[in-house]
């Protein structure tokens, strides 16, 4: 049997972060069996340096190379763990590819994850920021998250409530480094009603001549929409949306809307607040398609989507961070709204605009 732990020293990370940043990690350890974590993390190399967990690197910005060991969970088993009524419970290990897992659930005739098709990354990272797209968040399908807590040397099984899921947020994002997610248990239905309310899905299905869509039809529509709208990291480095949509008090949102009638407002799930479109705010400040004219000249904003920062090839993480800073400052100066980055930033601290 192969050993569950593999060490890589001075590991190149260019292919392991979707910005394509050319940084190296002093140590990267791959672990295929979560049972190996307690002994590994008690070893001298980890004892005083809690690891940074690396999934697919699609929600990370390395401003500096990591100053502590990286840990990648490579277990990729998926198994059934229950079948209540028309529902099926699946447990997937952290290293499973997210989009591959969505396709696997569709092939089993299960609905619930189709709106989250084609999001890059791993199953283990999905609960970290409660991934969401096309009107659905992963929390709706998560029954439990299994995690190891190095400081307490304990394995946990967290219920969905324990995870404190919110918009692009969870206990894991609030307390980075506390938990290593080792597996996620999902509950999915064979009779789920498709969720078509989000802009674009119904039109895309109509254009394809689909009348009564199955979950697979919805996934195909979402995949087509995403391929048209979002730059592909295999072609141009990016981490998807760089900023969260800001949530502001309802009165403030209405006042902004009165001044800027084209500003889209969304429900936030709370009657007292509204979600604003960060893409609209950034576009209104003239950033779409902008490319920096100093340093490498390779950091920029996608010409297709104002929310996506891109690496045209040789950008550094510092250049992307500084560009993000300038974008947030300009949005704050014009609209009084503070933007917050979505990706985890390594080697720099984001401070809200003053
Ligand atoms: C083109 C593109 C489109 C995207 N679209 C969306 C979208 O529609 N919706 C959306 O929500 N996100 C989107 N993202 C962001 C990203 O794909 C998701 O956040 C994804 O879940 C990150 O997975 P990952 O494995 O790459 O995580 P990584 O980038 O490797 O890590 C992200 C964070 O999670 C932590 N982490 C990762 N795995 C674990 C684990 N097992 N235990 C504990 N912590 C862990 C890391 O330490 C880090 O803090 C997009 C990104 C790209 C590049």
UniProtKB/TrEMBL annotation:
Enzyme class, UniProt record, top EC level: oxidoreductase
Reaction equation(s) it catalyzes: UDP-N-acetyl-alpha-D-muramate + NADP(+) = UDP-N-acetyl-3-O-(1-carboxyvinyl)-alpha-D-glucosamine + NADPH + H(+)
Molecular-function annotations in GO: FAD binding; UDP-N-acetylmuramate dehydrogenase activity
Iron-sulfur among keywords: no
GO cellular component, one term: cytosol
Domain FAD-binding PCMH-type: 21-191
Entry keyword set: Cell cycle, Cell division, Cell shape, Cell wall biogenesis/degradation, Cytoplasm, FAD, Flavoprotein, NADP, Oxidoreductase, Peptidoglycan synthesis
Subcellular location, record wording: Cytoplasm
Active site as annotated: 168, 241, 342
Family matches, as SUPFAM superfamilies: FAD-binding/transporter-associated domain-like, Uridine diphospho-N-Acetylenolpyruvylglucosamine reductase, MurB, C-terminal domain
Cofactor: FAD
EC number: 1.3.1.98
InterPro entries according to UniProt: FAD-bd_PCMH, FAD-bd_PCMH-like_sf, FAD-bd_PCMH_sub1, FAD-bd_PCMH_sub2, MurB, MurB_C, MurB_C_sf, Oxid_FAD_bind_N
PROSITE patterns for this protein: FAD_PCMH
Family indicated by similarity: Belongs to the MurB family.
HAMAP family: MurB
Role, per record: Cell wall formation.
Name of the molecule in the record: UDP-N-acetylenolpyruvoylglucosamine reductase
Biological source species: Marilutibacter penaei
Name of the gene encoding the protein in the UniProt record: murB
